[in-house]
Structures are given as C-alpha cells and as structure tokens.
Write a structure and sequence with these properties.
28% strand, binds zinc ion
C-alpha cells in the first residue's frame, strides 16, 4: 500500500498534456498500483496521473466494481448527452453540474499491455470522460457557465488554504458512514 499526495487546483501539472505511454515498465505498473491505493484511500472513483503529479497518460477507475487501468485511453464513440453533478479529488468539496455524453466507448491498454474496449453509461461513463479529460489538462470546472465558475472559484479561494503547495495529503481512515462517492 503506497498512498500518493494528490495535487489540487492551482498546481500547473493539472493543466499539462500528458505523454503517451510507449512501454509497460515495472515503474508504470507501480504507478498504476499506487494510483489505485490512493484513489481508494481518498474514497474516489477515478484518478488520473496528473492528479498525483505525473505526466504519463494513465488513469484508474472503479465504479461499483467496474475496475480498470486506462493506459493511453481514447474515446472512440459517444452518444447522447446527460447532465449530472461532478466533483474532483483535486478540487475537494466543490461540485458542479456538467453535461457529458450519455454513453462512451473507450479504447485503452491495461497494465498487462493488453488492448481492450469498454463501454460506459451513467456514472461509469461520466467517470471515464472526466478522467480522460484530466489526461489532456482539462477539469470539470471548465464546463461550467461563467457565473457558476465564478462562484465555484470563490468557494475554492476559501478552501485552498488547507492545501499548502497545492498538496492534499490523503489520510487513510477507516471506512465510515461518510462516503464521498462524487469525487473523481
Ligand atoms: Zn478529477
């Protein structure tokens, strides 16, 4: 178990384009495993490499047991549109309504180097889109209207002091009644 620090809004790494993975190295497998540990410890349902200060094109998700390591993921098909509330482990305690495709098909590689395709709808589909956005420097707040974004940013101004140097230390707590399932 190795829990990484999570970078929060304001850290430039969250706005960087990631670099495609060319080889599944032991270091990359360790990153995937650490990212799962970190995501579970933070009680999130998805986590992308920039959120732990890395630039590899890698994300992990686990939505009700739909557990995937997404290496070089690409959305190859989308359908429909749906609105729903989103949060982000990198913008703790801030939420907003985002319109996403209601169904996506994602092509990716797993940590064993195998290519696969996965289809996502509802929360899982939303999570896939949210994490793939992270890999291109995009955050859910970018989708908010100017007014909503302004109110979210003023909320964040009051919260960000809790995260010196844009670092969120994840403390492993015993699973209690307070689950924050909305943070991706
Ligand atoms: Zn996020």
């Amino acid at each position: 178990m190795n829990i990484l620090d999570i970078r929060v809004l304001g850290d430039p790494v969250l706005r960087k384009e990631t670099v495609a993975v060319t080889e599944i190295t032991p270091d990359l497998r360790k990153l995937v495993s650490d990212m799962f540990d970190t995501m579970y410890a933070a009680e999130g349902i998805g986590l992308a490499a920039p959120q732990v200060g890395r630039t590899e094109r890698v994300a992990v998700v686990d939505v009700d047991g739909a557990k995937y390591a997404l290496i070089n993921p690409e959305i190859v098909a989308t359908e429909g549109s749906t609105r729903g509330e989103e949060g982000c482990l990198s913008i703790p305690d801030v939420f907003g309504e985002v319109t996403r495709a209601s169904r996506v098909v994602v092509r990716a590689t797993n940590e064993s180097g195998e290519r696969y395709e996965v289809e996502g709808t509802e929360l899982f589909g939303r999570c896939l889109q949210h994490e793939i956005d992270h890999l291109h420097g995009k955050l859910f707040i970018d989708y908010l209207s100017v007014l909503k974004r302004r109110s979210v940013m003023s909320q964040w101004e009051k919260l960000k002091g809790d995260y010196p140097d844009f670092i969120r230390k994840v403390i492993l707590e015993k699973a209690g009644p307070h689950h924050s399932e909305g943070e991706l």
